[in-house]
Write a structure and sequence with these properties.
The complex is a heterodimer. By secondary structure, chain A is mainly beta. Helix content of chain A is 0%, strand content 54%. Chain B is mostly beta strands. Classes of the chains: A mainly beta, B mainly beta.
Amino acid sequence: GQQLNQSPQSMFIQEGEDVSMNCTSSSIFNTWLWYKQEPGEGPVLLIALYKAGELTSNGRLTAQFGITRKDSFLNISASIPSDVGIYFCAGQLEYGGSQGNLIFGKGTKLSVKP
Amino acid sequence: DVKVTQSSRYLVKRTGEKVFLECVQDMDHENMFWYRQDPGLGLRLIYFSYDVKMKEKGDIPEGYSVSREKKERFSLILESASTNQTSMYLCASSLLGAISYEQYFGPGTRLTVT
């Protein structure tokens, strides 16, 4: 099936540092979503992107829909301990995908040291 | 706010038992999904449904069945549980239409089959 390559797989950072992660694919997407999952919980939607080049913020989080429509980026500024969790990207394929179905990245596990 | 609830947070069953996992959403969403989540494998789609009494196989339907008798409720059934079905099961729902790609997840059911 289609793959989304999400990197890095894990990050260990100091509180206050900025964080960047990304998802890439060889396929074109018409939607990018970013989720956060805390231990023992379901993923929670953070940001949704629908246009190439779109830049959207949610508090300290900023995500961008890549111009090529094959990638997306998530940045977290001034990290705090409660940012800990696994961040997933998800996308809807432009072609070949079932309507409403998403392709998920495997996640970036973020650890923040106080 | 969208609310997706799952019948159990933790479940322990014996090999060969029939297992029912239930999911209910309160936002009148047409689409509902069942995923399993395993370390290193990410989220994998088991089944999805676009409407009442309608179901479609996802990427890993073997060993599972589903039922959707009411719009708000989507059940996942393990006819004869096996140890390789030990996993975290996540239900999600989304709208059918222009913004149909934002999936909202329940808290998950961690199933252990012994």
